[in-house]
Amino acid sequence: MKYSIGEFASMLGITADTLRLYEKHDIVRPLKGSRNNYRYFDDLDARNLLSSRWYRSMQIPLQDVAGLINDAPSGRVVESIAAAREQLEEEIRRSTLLLQKMSEIHQELTGMGESFYRCRIRQAPGMYRIPQTDKNRLLQHDDLRPAVQEWMDLLPFTFYSFRIADSVDLDGSKELDYTWGLALLEEDRRKLGIEVSASAEYIGPCTCITAVIANGYDEYIAQEAFQFMLDYAGEHRYAVTGDIYGKILFTERSCGRNRTYLEINIPI
Prior knowledge:
- This protein is α+β, with helices and mostly antiparallel strands.
- It is 38% helix and 26% strand.
- Strand 12 (245-254) and strand 13 form a beta hairpin.
- The mean pLDDT is 91.
- It has two domains: 3-80, Multidrug-efflux Transporter Regulator, Chain: A, Domain 2; 111-267, Regulatory factor, effector binding domain (Multidrug-efflux Transporter 1 Regulator Bmrr, Chain A, Alpha-Beta Barrel).
- The termini are far apart.
- Strands 4-11-13-12-8-9-5-10 form an eight-stranded antiparallel β-sheet.
- The protein contains eight helices and 13 strands.
């Protein structure tokens, strides 16, 4: 029996545009009327379309579905479904990791008040970072761009981090020498199976003094902003054993004022 495009689409619960797309991929092959040039579909087209929708329901790409409809030995069908299953398993794995990371970020932000200008001792995890700035000025290093592009695609597992050079010798008499750059925790690198570029630097796990501070959005990081942490180290006879580093937690924009909340880590 012959059906017009509107009638055929309605009977199968799809839109005429979807039907045209399937026709474009040679999944259905309507006949054109000799007088009016209208396209007409038959019952075999319905079978092919329903088969293709079955394949698509398992997230097999449409171009692959077209191949299965036109040439589908049993082995190829099995292989296509297996490949789609593996792809879905990987998507679920990444979504599960993303959900865990979002939970970590939410917990970190909701507990931020406990560390706001308050020092505590913690074991900081190892991480990798790619320096991208000299203070707030972007570096023009072509060799960094491929790694930066890759790590931008890893957000929110990557985050924006700073590192202050020569932190052990800070005396408050000069402007801080620091860089900003994307960072990735060592544990997240392992979970994601990421190969780290040679351009990335490594900051190992360490015991550190940690606190959260607020900094003006466009202000340079100054020693006076975290001097209370250095004072805390002195009072408790802790020696600074490595470069001070940290990260942006988030930027608050309210009433025309912007300020950035930073986590500061001082290795001891």
